[in-house]
Automatic annotation (TrEMBL):
UniProt-recorded name of the protein: Uncharacterized protein
Region (Disordered) location: 168-192
Organism, as annotated: Drouetiella hepatica Uher 2000/2452
Domain of life: Bacteria
Length: 192
């Protein structure tokens, strides 16, 4: 069995820094990267306040706790000094807390999706009821525009154009009878 050279804390930090922070490493992979023995890796993790029962460890966590602990030890410090250092850090969330947080996020996502569906249903229902009022609303808006200054003149001009027709000689004549004007408008065809 070949012995790997134990790396310094600076070398370990450089190796971990080269990896994405979200990368998860097993204890075996940590041993391979650091050149530390299984016992040393487990002891350092434990003294850092990192649960040794975990199957994997994020590079971000190792950079935050494991690497500083190794620096303390490289500088001649003890595991007692490592424990004192760890007390200055924020407590770690347990895996159970992370699972609860994940469940909370999932619940909030589901609540958001449900709320969106309810809101869409309410809007769709209101839109269906609104369709019945749209012709009246349109007529009111159109008549309002006709009665206003510039709209009134434009309406009168367009109406006069509609009411003028060419007779058989090509001359225009004005229709005096509204029934005649009605005949000029496009008729509605019924589907057979």
């Amino acid at each position: 069995m070949s012995m790997k050279k134990q790396k310094t804390a600076i070398e370990i930090e450089a190796a971990f820094t080269a990896l994405p922070l979200e990368t998860l490493l097993t204890k075996k992979q940590i041993e391979e990267i650091t050149g530390l023995s299984d016992n040393t890796v487990v002891t350092t993790l434990a003294k850092c306040g990192i649960p040794t029962s975990s199957r994997t460890y994020s590079v971000a966590l190792l950079l935050e706790r494991f690497v500083p602990a190794r620096k303390i030890l490289d500088d001649g410090g003890t595991y007692e000094k490592v424990e004192q250092f760890v007390k200055t850090l924020s407590p770690l969330e347990s895996a159970e807390d992370e699972e609860d947080g994940g469940a909370l996020i999932d619940a909030l996502d589901q609540l958001e999706e449900d709320a969106a569906q309810v809101l869409y249903g309410a809007i769709e229902e209101r839109a269906e009821r609104l369709v019945g009022y749209m012709p009246k609303m349109l007529m009111k808006a159109v008549s309002g525009a006709i009665l206003k200054g510039a709209g009134r003149q434009k309406f009168k001009t367009e109406l006069m154009q509609i009411l003028k027709v060419e007779n058989s000689t090509g001359q225009q004549k004005r229709l005096a009878n509204p029934e005649e004007a009605q005949k000029l408008l496009p008729s509605e065809t019924q589907d057979s």
